[in-house]
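Most newcomers find our protein records easier to grasp once they have seen one. A record pairs a protein's sequence with a compact description of its fold. An example says more than a description, so a record of this kind follows:
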Amino acid sequence: MSDADPTDDLVPLSPPTPRRKSGGRSSLAELIRLVVAEHGVGRDPTYRRIVAAWRDAAGTETFEHTRVARVQRGTVTIEVDSAPLLHELETYMKSGLLQMLRAKAKAPVTSIRFVAGARAPRTGERSVTGRTSEA
């Protein structure tokens, strides 16, 4: 019997890129990649805690227009899909959100940064084009 670890030849999943086969159906592998990416499975547990803490700190309405884009050296970068909301978060809400994020994430968060970006619609939501996204 060999001492080799059976997980040694596993390859990490690539980012989701929905490709369609004829008839508009995705393969099972593609669907699994999309679900794994959407729910953050396999990501750093600290990142997942920060996303959950951001959801709680920001509230449902704000969370729907933002996403945690990056966590690097204690700085959490939040992409915001609306310039007025970005201004409001940066100008009026930043210090309070940072305090709540620190308390809820139980992670070393030193600062929060807001940047303009387009949040990809979650499964079942309508995009800017009016089309419904699919899993």
